[in-house]
Structure prediction request, 92 residues.
Amino acid sequence: MEHADFHIGLEFFTGAGKWRCTDVGTRVIVAISLEPRETVRVHYDENGERREERFMSNDPRDLLGPPYSVAEYVFAEYDLDGCYATADEVPH
Prediction:
């Protein structure tokens, strides 16, 4: 894909899966992964001890933002050759 193809909200594909564009810079694209993700939920038990619960999530609420509760990734201009409009275009 070309830099001009991207706009906020555009969904695209790479070898790592499906992404959504969250920002378009002069030479970069910022996106969040739409793939299931490892989530860590932290809470404190009745003794005040920290507990972590790790699980895979595909909850769509994780993708609401900005700000997002998932990491945003930067695709430099050199990375855009590995971005595709459809999953069928991704080389296997």
